[in-house]
Amino acid sequence: MKKTWWKEAVIYQVYTRSFKDTSGDGVGDLNGVAEKLDYLQELGVDMLWLCPMYKSPNVDNGYDVSDYRDIMDEMGTMADFDNMLEGIHSRGMKLILDLVINHTSDQHPWFLESKSSRDNPKRDWYVWRDKPTNWESIFGGPAWTYDPKTDQYYLHLYTKNQVDLNWENPEVRRSIYDMVIWWIEKGVDGFRVDAINHLKKDYTDMPNPEGENYVPAWEKMTNVEGLQEFLTELRDETFARYDVVTVGEANSVKAEHLAEWISEEEGKFNMIFSFEALESWNTDQDADRNVVRVKKIFDQWQKKAHGIAWNSLYLENHDRPRTVSTWGNDKEYWRESATALACMYFFMQGTPFIYQGQEIGMTNAPFEDISMYRDVETLNFCRYQQLQGVPVDEIMEKIKKISRDHARTPMQWNSGRKAGFTEGQPWISLNPNYTWLNVEAQKNDGRSILSFYKKMIALRKSCECLLYGSTELAEVNCPDVYAYTREYGNTKMLIVSHLDSDGCSWSLKGKGQLLLANHEEITEGRLQPYEARVYLLD
To answer: Is 42 an active-site residue?
Structure first.
């Protein structure tokens, strides 16, 4: 397997809108990212992944792009971007951008032309039909919206303001490729490619259940035959010509499909974000956790990738509730569960991603009223559930567990006014626990979650075994313990993460040097609640 810089990197995802505001308008901006680069460098990360900062009306927080070559007003200017990029590169770090190419905003000039008349040259840049299919959009409601001016329907897999591009049109593809190259030549080091398995569609109806007007249509718009041809062309016309890293978001890809997506021989991307393992562990806090199932899925990805491909390793992102509040215990064992979960995923083979705030153990927000939520998916879910007669209390209980807004509350820098995020009114409410859960409170505490992340990053960088070694599950006779070995040459390491609030009997077989632990006192023959250890085995 080839050794390369992006395999050895640690990547930090910045949700710019919620990271740091320097203008006082309550919205994070590019100058805020630039201001915190020293913090990220001290943490030990090598690369930033920046969520969309393109020009946008912000229906879906930047994932509705109205100009791919300009900056969102609230986030600054292109000069601010250039300054931030220079600051990143001067510190020896790199930058990857979110690339949203399945759809654009309905305010994009391309769509404004497309909808102006049926004979406009850009009419075929989007998907128009006289008669819509019966698909339901990913965010709820019909996937087609009627345009009275031209008497046709246009397709949108997300909101009606996020209009799907017609990838069958070679002019569309060429324009996308030119834009990608423009950013690379500007100095960007790679891309996370959004919703990439939806580019190809099968425009036929789904079987229609009685009494329903539209139904979910995942199989009609996910991994449809012909998609790989699009992705091959995208790779060959852009990424393959430069030394950049790419990560595709492909929510339905399983381990057995890995080769065509990310193998070094035929892959279209360097890595993908697959949701298989994370979706197997329900984010509903009352659901039974199944560590055994999660171990099995992660192990499949490790085995399938070893020697031919490279995994992305992550637990959190801008679309998921906080892991310590769902997989862990954010009350009695907040620090222990945050660090045990971190240890579990961080040392597998692959490139680890850290989502902002994860490194200090940020938790789900206690938002009790729908007015406190901003996420379009959450608001649509609430509206459609109410139309179906579901009681508000039931709807809110669900939202409080699954909303994407839990990951989007402002970064908690200190215990001062507005958590050090802004001098103005934050675009979304702060999590009230910022008064004690913040960077300032943890940065000089050797036992803090932040300190643990720094130690993990340093350990991973110090040992090739944790980069390129093989991975094998270790049997520990305890279903709530996730343990695995990494082996490379003459080096063998053992990673043990106990993911439960009860104790568990376990002893190290043979001898080993303890390199990292999240409990100060190690009990022989027993793992404490949410205890994690890393050993160098003799």
So the answer is: no
Domain 11-104+170-365+410-459 sits in CATH at: 3.20.20.80
Q: Of residues 194, 330, 336, 531, which has the active-site annotation?
A: 194
Catalytic position from the list 106, 136, 249, 405: 249
CA dihedral (19, 22, 28, 29) in degrees, to 10, reads -110
Phi/psi of residue 418, each to 5°?
Answer: 55, 30
pLDDT recorded at residue 289: 63
Measured distance CA(487)–CA(492) in Å, rounded: 4
Mean pLDDT by 10 residues, the chain (538 residues): 95 97 98 98 98 96 96 97 98 98 98 98 98 92 96 97 98 98 98 97 87 82 96 98 97 90 96 82 55 90 95 94 94 97 98 98 91 85 85 85 91 97 96 98 97 98 97 91 96 97 90 96 93 97
Query: Which token pair is 16?
Result: 């710019």
CATH classification (class only), 111-155: alpha beta
Between CA 77 and CA 132 the distance in angstroms is 39
Contacts of 170 (CB under 8 A, 6+ apart): none
**Strand, coil or helix: 287:** coil
d(CA 352, CA 7): 9
Tokens of 351: 């490139």
Structure tokens at 408: 């989007």
CA atoms within 13 A on the CB side of 119: 0
Taking the C-alpha atoms of residue 409 and residue 430, their distance in angstroms, rounded to an integer, is 6
Q: Helices H, strands E: what count in the chain?
A: 17, 24
CATH class of 471-537: mainly beta
For the four alpha carbons of 453, 459, 461 and 464, in that order, the dihedral sign comes to: negative
Q: Where are the domains of the chain?
A: 11-104+170-365+410-459, 111-155, 368-402, 471-537
> Tokens 């491909």 belong to which residue?
309
| 194 has catalytic annotation | yes
Distance separating alpha carbons of residues 33 and 29, to the nearest angstrom = 7
